[in-house]
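We recall that each integer encodes one residue's backbone shape. We quote one record:
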Amino acid sequence: MEVSPSPTPDLDRTVMAAVTASETRGDPPFACAVEVSRCCVSDESSDSGSGSAFPSAELASILVSNLCFSHNTPFMWKLLEQAMANRLVYPLQVLALLTSRVIPNRRAQPEAYRLFLELIRRYSLSFSVVEAGYCRRRIMKYIEGAMQLSRTYQVEEIDFGTSVVLFVFSTITTLIDCALEDYGLPFASQSRVVNEGSQSSDLDARGKHRDHLKESNAFMALEALENISSEKKIQILLHLVYLNMPGPFNNLLQRLRFIEAHKLSTNSLAAVNHLLEKFFFNIQKAMNLEYLPNKRSILGYLLNTGSMNSPPSLLIGAGKGGCWIIFDIFMENSMERKTFCPGAVFEKLTELITTLQIINQASWQETFQALWLSALRLVQRGREPMIGPIPHLDSRMCMLLAIVPLSIAPLVKEESKTSIAGGNGILSKKQSLVACLQSLRQFSSLLSPPLAMVDITNNAATKAASFVRNFKAGSGNLGMMSSNYSSVKAVGNLLHLVVEACITRDLIDTSAYFWPGYVLPSVVTKDLDLILIQDSPWLSFMQGAPLTGPLQIALMATPATSIKELEKLNLLALNGTKEERTAASKILCGASLTRGWNIQECVVRIVVKLLSPPLLSDSPVSGDTSCYLPHMHMLSAVLSCLAHVDVIHILSLHGLVSEVAAALMPLCEAFGTMPPPPSYQSSNVDEVTVYSVFSFAFLFLIRLYKFYGPAQELLVSGRGGPVRPETTLDCLLLMRNNHVRNNEGHVANDTYSVHELPCHSVYIDSFPKLRNWYFQNQACVASVISGLCKSKPCCQVANLILNMIFRKINKVVVPVSTSMSSGAGSASTMTSSSRSESSGSVSDDSCQRPPLLPAWDMLEAIPFVLEAFLTACAYGQLSSRDLTTGLRNLVDFFPASVATITSYFSAEITRGVWKSVGMNGTEWPSPAEALYTFESEIKEVFAHVGVNIQNSYPRGTPPTLPLPLAALGSLTITFNMDKKSDYTRDVVGEALENCAAGCSWLSMLIIGSLWTQKARKWHDFAIYVATCAPFIHMKDPVAQLMHSCFKAFLGPASRDGSSLTSVRGVVGLLGQCASNNSDLHPGLLFVRTCHTFQDPHFCSDVIFKLVIEWSGKLADEQICGSPTQLKFGRVSLAATICIVRQVAIIGASLLCVAGRALLVQILFEETVPTSLLSQHEIRPGQVESISSMLQGYAISYLMFFSTAIVWGIGANSAGCKFWSSEGRARMISSHLDFIARVLEGRIVLGCDPSMWKAHVLCFVGLLVRFAPAWVMSAKLDTLRKISSGLRIWHEFDLALSLLKLGGMGAIEAVVESLF
């Protein structure tokens, strides 16, 4: 505890002698104050160490110490007031000293308490900041000694500003406690000793007056509280406590809740209820204090323009829903087959919902409506999906009916736990959701179900109709139709599925079934066959029916409806007979997984948990992998079902990719060390073998990351990778282990306890065989095969594989161990002589018997086999047909070899060391039949989206491909186009796309033509793939596509009638319904191809320039036709602001979907500073100045929206889990430092000054208004410099609001700005 300082005794005597003499002479208080000040000056002048300065801390201490209470006279009070008014003493110090003396004696000295309250009212705000120096230090010591602020509020180092804030806050809480105690309701937490004074039995006039004074003092204390808390400066100080000291502020709120609970039941408080209500309102206003710019300024219009309330937004630019385009782009990007989410999509979507609701200043009903409309458009765009290995309708329905409800659930439940809106006309989130769902019925075109969903929607509508009918009939079973009643068959749409999803997750209740027009029965019949349809196969299963025949088929086609059904299936899959395990696994991975939307988050976790079955713990051998054998059939069934594209994508949407990878690694390690049985001849999808289970698990694992990564991508873009860095196995494990660590100590929800996933970390070093292959594969990608270590066992295995593959084509294989001695280019690897002339190192038995070796041994040797293949083919010793046949034989025998084949060929293609071969139809398959038609169709697609590709395949020139690419392409067209081949075809197909695109886009034309000739139904998919190729190395198409996206979203810039009829906004950018390739929208092509962009700096620069160009052009169009000076009319200015927001939001959306955090970082650190520093061509005229100003606003919005989309606006948002929050803090801090240096004059800009000023005002305003958590990352000195610059521009409120967000260290700067 710090001891309060005290003045010297001599000064005390001198001052009091002067006071006594002046009072004796009858001098007025002012004259006495002058005389007293002379005493202080003469005393301080004699002390060389202190110097002469006012206000005097010693004088204040002397006056207060004598006033309380040895010289408690009216003259002394008047003298003290004069000294405060003339700044002889510091008012804050006087009030602090009086507080510590008067409050404990307020009942014994009611007159002094009354005068103290009056001084509080007069001088709580009428003081100025003392300059730093001796006076300030002395005053702070007196305040601290009197009130012990640092000890009370546990502040280690207290500065002057913090003293002021804590004094005001302490005074308010003290007055509350005094008032409560005086009204007979002492607050439980206070421990203040009060001097009651002497109690006289005489009720004389003076005694009655003092009693009345005590009662009126309590009322006056509340008046003083209401009076000072209504001042804006006091509210700012309270807001600082609210931001930086939540503990003390919560104590204040506890007092308010205590008063609220007792004010109506206590007569004394009921009489002052009007004061309490005003005081409560002032405290609430202080809590919600935010920066509100002047609405008459352009900045005020910019920051206060709502999302859907502006009439001009209906007429120009992207239209009414343009500000929600991020929802559509986010969802469409989530459907991209090469996009694996680092976490659960619904977590990121929840953060995005909150972010857009805040920055668009929209109601929750508007926000939820925009969200559901985006999800419905997503489904409509995929209602007629193309055939091919891409996510189809099930993934889109998962987004609509599982991901979106899961993203809304935390918002609704969080509100129910904290507070419920009521009485203020604001709908709660749950009420807003109900109102939103009711309003969706007006969007009938979006609610039309795809053909595959018609029966499901009708069943949902029928369920609602049955519920309503049974409710009206008083039936106890509301959910099922009774056979005594007519069966109601209703026609449904997607709204019925949405409502069912919300009811299941307790977001709304079953009163939704009674909404007007929700149930429209179309058929009423007594046909008992329709009643039997209502019986679910799950009912039979739960009643004990065996999983055989028709029941198993029905269960696979019908989603489960409850957790209990899943639990029973899970037990059978783990503990049943072999047949039951297989059947239960297939059922779990059937419709319950793909279309069990209402409980899909449970199903996916159960399925993933099946990949880690409980193992026998009594194995006699440590590390024995045979413990997996009892579960082999179950694992085979699960893995074969999970191989489909939609299933993998659903797992990705639920954020389980890293969990799946961790579960697959031990399976690969175990089954990869087991040899197949002696009878094994070739892989059969329907046959469960060690090779088949390993192949399923291994190929599933490598599909989760880019295992074949071409070596060239390590050198592109100068930052170690493409615009959007690819996921690696190391990255997957890191994400998974971080998730485990973050969830340690987390109590699981009882609902999900059945499917809690393993909570231990997984490292690749725990799986030595997998680790060896992983590093060998990386070595194959990074260097030529000759650089690998070749062990003797590996060479022997390679020889066995070579002989096995070519025994059917009458080829003799020179042993790999021999060919190695002559290097990778040996031409004597294979010959065409008869089998009887084979080398003696390989026996006849080994030629006839397949190599029954563990899978890892096979994978280790396959690269050398492939090198032998290509070398022999390149030197003409192996025909192309035999090469393709040999590769296909290898895949048939050992499906997992597809991974090594793909990886090896991908690396060889990018090295460019192999000669090209002619695709002439003789040696290699010819694409001539479809090549030129295929090319023309692709160019039509590009022309439709505004992209001009100059390169064409030369007419009359035979098509050629590099040898590895020709071999890989020829292999792909040998695969069947059925679902059984998905797990191998999709692996090699995706890698082939990247390889072909890595050569030139003309190579992709050849591959696409071959695919089209193989399977005509894959024609649209081949076009889909080929359109991505030109964007890898050609920058012009990228820039053209981005420009088309802006044009499609914003519509024509002209103000003529065409802007009212043109297709723009979300529909113009992405479309609203299914479209074929010839009618492709620019936004869809951008989402499809942005992962191929290779230069992040170029992408950032192009988007930035487009934002500048379009904001200036559209602003000029709006200003055109009016006087050269901008008219500050509401309509014209609001229209211009809408354009600025729309341009920035489409730019930010494209930037984030293309490169996520990387492109936003480049935008902040390089693109924007470079542009501001560069010299711009300035055209004379006021319109140019206004255009530059609006461009400055557009830059700020682009930076703000981009950061908000990636990281969110909160301090601990979901985006910070996926992308390090340190990146956001570094970017914001760096740009604020840049602004501060420019404002200081240390950096000279080249841009228009109006652009710079507009950018600074808007960027800082956006931070203060919508993202205060971001400001905490800035340096305090930076905030001070920016605040000083803003005050020079007369933006005092903005400067003060910025400083308020600087934390405890900025409190002093805020106080200095206020007083």
In short: The chain has a mean pLDDT of 79.
